[in-house]
Automatic annotation (TrEMBL):
This is Large ribosomal subunit protein uL4. Pfam families: Ribosomal_L4. GO terms for molecular function: rRNA binding; structural constituent of ribosome. Part of the 50S ribosomal subunit. It comes from Aequorivita sublithincola (strain DSM 14238 / LMG 21431 / ACAM 643 / 9-3). SUPFAM superfamilies: Ribosomal protein L4. Residues 45-77 are annotated as: Disordered. HAMAP family: Ribosomal_uL4_B (MF_01328_B). One of the primary rRNA binding proteins, this protein initially binds near the 5'-end of the 23S rRNA. It is important during the early stages of 50S assembly. It makes multiple contacts with different domains of the 23S rRNA in the assembled 50S subunit and ribosome. Forms part of the polypeptide exit tunnel. Belongs to the universal ribosomal protein uL4 family. Transmembrane segments: none annotated.
């Protein structure tokens, strides 16, 4: 699959790059994508929720009414969850929501997500760029030239470029990462994927193992 290389003004440079069919041209496995996104979101949960249970509530331990003859249900403690102010029955406890997925499945999920973006014509290849200093205005100009100023976009660098990253940090809906930080969730969450030339080799190497 050949894709034209664009410059920072959104113009065709006349060069084309070949995207690996093993990474950008496979039959997408939607269930693998679902599992990988589910794991990513589960790992974001802190799991610090806690409700006080019966044993943790302050209150008298005396039996609140006699066992028989009242015509109502038996009750032995004011701290029971059936009474107002009582403990929560089966309430949430601190826990980890994370779960494991094997490497092959996660690799398949990322390749599936990239292939889905390629099928949707939502992948741009941009020649490598660098800014002399962090400047949001410079990055906004790149977005405008690519027609991405009102869309969610993910830019993937080959190596960390601090000036490019800082230039994009204040822009809502735009994220800049390196190829080693690429995840299925980030790919699927973006409307458009912008790959810098320097990132292609790293992406294909990481996902072709």
């Amino acid at each position: 699959m050949k894709v034209a290389v664009l410059d920072i003004n959104g113009k065709d440079t006349g060069r084309k790059v070949e995207l690996s069919a093993d990474v950008f041209g496979i039959e997408p496995n939607t269930h693998a994508v679902y599992l990988d996104v589910k794991q990513y979101l589960a790992n974001q949960r802190q799991g610090t929720h806690k409700a006080k249970e019966r044993a943790e509530i302050s209150g008298s331990t005396r039996k609140i009414k006699k066992q028989k003859g009242t015509g109502t249900a038996r009750a032995g403690s004011i701290k029971s969850g059936v009474f107002k102010g009582g403990g929560r029955m089966f309430g949430p406890r601190p826990r980890s929501y994370s779960f494991k997925l094997n490497k092959n499945l996660k690799r398949l999920a990322r390749k599936s997500a990239l292939s889905m973006k390629a099928n949707d014509k939502a992948i741009f290849v941009l020649e490598d760029l660098s800014f002399d200093a962090p400047k949001t205005k410079s990055f906004t100009a790149v977005l405008n030239s690519l027609g991405l100023n009102d869309k969610k976009s993910l830019f993937v660098l080959g190596d960390l470029n601090n000036n490019v990253y800082l230039s994009s940090r204040n822009l809502k809906g735009t994220e800049v990462i390196t190829n080693s930080q690429l995840s299925t969730y980030k790919i699927m969450n973006a409307n458009s994927l912008v790959l810098f030339e320097g990132s292609l080799e790293g992406i294909e190497t990481n996902l072709s193992k």
